[in-house]
Structures are given as structure tokens and as C-alpha cells.
């Protein structure tokens, strides 16, 4: 029932959007400097034997795409002479050798920095900036990027933590709820033509409804059959794979942008350079996280939720409708995941696997904070987000997620229950 419902919804993407999942293998990317697109930069691709495969020039939104003849490993060169004055590849690697799989649209990352931060042309004859950015500016930008990414992770992590706390389910399909929210916003904003703010609200409402529907039609049914937690976890992995490829089939493998708030130049706020759209989404995320956290502490439903999480049998004996509370948690988790997806898509465009790509980081945040604790999910998200961004100060940006997961392993060696988790006796 779940996949059938998703298939019906995704059929609407056929209106004004390309379907099919692959038009062939491509190398692609987006060049930005402090959040602003960098246009006019030349990118060249070569095969392993040194033959030219193709070249592209980044457009007004900083995007470039080079079709390649098939799967394989390619050499991709960024022509640094076409960068704006003062802008450089911050990791010192203008040449990369990415591997492209069958049917893959492979994203290639060239982190840029320096210059005026808001340059949108690739003309190297632009006037030089008055002063090069200092190390303090870079640290400030990394700090803000960490906070911003932490809030995105926290929205999804809070939902998955509440679901685990009340049901014990480790839901590997939660990343697809994040993607679902972004795709619904894209549907209403780009395909139908509604404003992005209204599209986002509708997407969050549909995401919450999807959370309710999942528990009503699927997970609740498994729970009544007393399916053990290992089995349900494996089922969630299967659901994740099935839904992800439904998204791929109907939406396609390319990443796409919303019709509004793209490529905004950053504004100077003290040592920070921040795009206005990021400030707005940060404010929304903070308000939602604070509201949900306070509701868990101060409202009757919140206290009932915590009672179910602590001891479902005792909560039921006290007159609490356990199934109703679990369904409420699934609804809330679906809405929070959808909101996380919308904000993530505003930050880095819409992709069929965007939720899957941050799923391990969501689990890392929940595990680090302590499984089943709402405050732990928030604290764990903050640690993971900041560590990911600050790690790029010393290591290539391609390895930043690896560093965060490595830090998670080290911390859990000394505190296996997580930062705010409680020790429990087994046996």
C-alpha cells in the first residue's frame, strides 16, 4: 500500500518534468564561493588514456555538466585561469579522478574560496577584492555552516529519535521521508507553480500525513502481529530501497533547484557571510525544534509520549492510548523529516537520494546524543554538524563525513550510551 501510494503521487511529476532515470552517464557539479554561484569557469574531462571527453562552462547558477561515453574513471580539470580574481580551489586539488557507475550522474566537488565572495562571473579581469579573507573569516564561515547543517540534521534526528523511543524501531526508511518532503515541495513549486513558502508548508503537511499513513497501514499492522524489532528493521531497509528507486524512476537522477531563492549572494553579518535564505530557514528550524522540545516537556501529549517511551505497558495500564501516541509520534516524525528535506533542498537542490545521503549522519547524531532522547538528538546533531564542517579545515572536503563517523566511533568507545543516554542493565 505504501509503495502504491507513493507511485500515484510521483506520477504527477510527469507534468512539466522529465521522467526516466537516466539519459546517460554524466559528470556534473555546482561552483559556489561563500554561497554565491561562480559562472564562466571552464571544466574539462579526459578519459584514462588522456583523450578529451568534453568540456563545459559553469552557467549563471554555477552549474556545469559534461556527458561521458560510459561508466569508468575520468580525469576532471578545473581551469583556474578562468576563476574570478582572488578565488582559488581551497583544497588545492583542481584535478580530480572520479569514477562513474552505470547510469550515474556523478557530482564532482571543487570547493572554492577567497575573492569578493559574491562574484558571479568567471572573468579573471575583475578588480581584486580590497582585502583577502582572513583565517578568522574562514573559521567563522565554517562555524556557521556547521550550525546550519546541524539544524537540518536535528529536524530529522528528532523525529527518528521519538519513533525509536516509543516503538523501538530503527527506521532505515526515514531518509526517504526527508527526500519525500523535498520532492513534494518541488512538485508544488516548480511543476504546479506555487510560491516556495506555500509549497514548503504543503510538503510538511503531506509529510506528516505520510508518517500517519505509514503507521496506520504498515508499521502499526506489523506491531499488532508482534513482529520482532530485528525483522522490522530489515523490512525498513527494504522499504527504503523500494521507495528510493520509485523516486529515481519518476523524478530522475539529476539534482534540480526550486524556482525561487537560488544563488543568493551572501550578506556580511560581522565575521559571517550568509545567504538570506539560510538565515530564514535557520529561524524556522530553531522555532520548530524549540516548540517540539517544549511541547514534549510541558503538554499532556508530550508527557504521555515520554511515558510510552519509558514503559509502554505501564503507560497503557495508566489509561494512555499507546497506539494513539505512537501514531502521533509517526505523524510528527514525518512532518519534521519533510521540513528537514525542504530546508536541505533550499541549501543544496533536490535529488532523489538526498535523504539517503544524510541518513548515516542522522543516525550518528541520534546515537551520539543517546537513542530515544529528544535532547540527545539535538545535542548529537550539533556535535556532528560542527565536526563535519570544521574537519574540512584540515582534510579534503570529500572526507568530511568519514571524519564525523570516525569521531562517533571514538566517543562511543568511552560512552556507549551516548552523551545524554542512560545506562541500562541487560539480563
From TrEMBL:
Name a single GO cellular component: plasma membrane
User: Its GO biological process terms?
Assistant: amino acid transport; carbohydrate metabolic process
Keyword Cell membrane on entry: yes
Statement: the UniProt record of this protein carries the keyword Membrane: yes
How does this chain sit within the bilayer? Multi-pass membrane protein
* Domain of life of the native organism: Bacteria
Among InterPro entries, the record links this protein to:
ABC_transp_permease (IPR001851), BCAA_transport_permease (IPR052157), Ig-like_fold (IPR013783)
What are the UniProt keywords, alphabetically?
A: Amino-acid transport, Cell membrane, Membrane, Signal, Transmembrane, Transmembrane helix, Transport
Q: What is its main location?
A: membrane
- Segments traversing the membrane: 142-165, 177-210, 230-251, 279-298, 328-347, 359-390
Q: Name one GO molecular function term.
A: transmembrane transporter activity
- Please state the span of the N-terminal signal peptide per the UniProt entry: 1-22
Which family does the UniProt entry place this protein in? Belongs to the binding-protein-dependent transport system permease family. LivHM subfamily.
Q: What is this protein called?
A: Branched-chain amino acid ABC transporter permease
Amino acid at each position: 500500500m505504501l509503495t502504491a501510494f507513493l507511485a500515484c503521487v510521483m506520477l504527477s511529476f510527469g507534468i512539466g518534468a522529465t521522467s526516466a532515470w537516466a539519459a546517460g552517464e554524466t559528470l556534473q557539479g555546482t561552483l559556489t564561493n561563500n554561497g554565491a554561484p561562480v559562472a564562466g569557469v571552464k571544466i574539462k574531462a579526459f578519459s584514462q588514456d588522456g583523450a578529451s571527453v568534453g568540456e563545459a562552462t559553469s552557467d549563471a547558477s554555477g552549474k556545469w555538466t559534461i556527458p561521458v561515453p560510459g561508466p569508468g574513471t575520468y580525469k576532471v580539470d578545473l581551469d583556474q585561469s578562468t576563476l574570478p580574481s582572488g578565488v582559488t580551489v581551497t583544497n588545492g586539488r583542481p584535478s580530480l579522478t572520479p569514477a562513474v557507475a552505470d547510469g550515474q550522474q556523478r557530482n564532482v566537488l571543487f570547493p572554492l574560496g577567497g575573492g569578493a565572495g559574491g562574484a558571479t562571473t568567471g572573468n579573471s579581469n575583475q578588480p581584486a577584492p580590497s582585502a583577502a579573507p582572513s583565517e578568522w573569516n574562514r573559521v567563522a564561515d565554517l562555524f556557521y555552516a556547521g550550525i546550519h547543517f546541524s539544524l537540518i540534521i536535528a529536524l530529522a534526528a528528532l523525529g527518528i529519535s521519538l519513533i525509536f523511543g516509543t516503538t523501538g524501531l530503527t527506521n532505515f526508511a526515514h531518509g526517504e521521508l526527508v527526500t519525500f518532503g523535498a520532492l513534494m515541495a518541488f512538485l508544488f513549486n516548480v511543476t504546479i507553480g506555487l510560491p516556495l513558502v506555500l509549497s514548503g508548508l504543503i510538503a510538511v503537511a503531506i509529510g506528516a500525513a505520510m508518517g500517519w499513513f505509514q503507521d496506520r497501514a504498515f508499521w502499526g499492522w506489523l506491531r499488532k502481529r508482534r513482529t520482532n524489532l530485528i525483522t522490522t528493521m530489515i523490512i525498513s531497509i527494504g522499504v527504503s530501497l523500494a521507495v528510493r528507486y520509485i523516486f529515481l524512476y519518476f523524478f530522475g537522477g539529476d539534482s534540480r533547484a526550486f524556482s525561487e531563492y537560488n544563488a543568493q549572494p551572501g550578506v556580511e553579518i560581522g565575521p559571517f557571510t550568509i545567504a538570506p535564505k539560510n538565515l530564514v530557514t535557520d529561524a524556522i528550524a530553531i522555532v520548530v525544534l524549540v516548540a517540539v522540545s517544549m511541547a514534549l516537556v510541558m503538554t499532556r501529549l508530550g508527557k504521555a509520549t515520554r511515558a510510552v517511551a519509558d514503559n509502554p505497558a505501564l503507560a497503557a495500564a495508566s489509561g494512555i492510548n499507546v497506539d494513539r501516541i505512537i501514531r502521533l509520534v509517526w505523524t510528527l516524525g514525518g512532518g519534521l523529516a519533510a521540513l528537514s528535506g525542504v530546508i536541505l533542498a533550499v541549501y543544496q537542490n533536490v535529488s532523489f537520494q538526498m535523504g539517503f545521503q544524510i541518513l548515516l549522519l542522522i543516525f550518528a547524531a541520534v546515537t551520539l546524543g543517546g537513542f530515544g532522547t529528544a535532547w540527545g538528538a539535538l545535542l548529537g546533531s550539533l556535535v556532528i554538524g560542527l565536526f563535519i564542517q570544521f574537519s574540512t579545515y584540515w582534510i579534503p572536503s570529500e572526507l568530511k563525513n568519514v571524519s564525523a563517523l570516525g569521531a562517533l566511533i571514538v566517543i562511543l568507545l568511552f560512552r556507549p550510551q551516548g552523551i545524554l543516554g542512560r545506562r541500562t542493565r541487560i539480563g
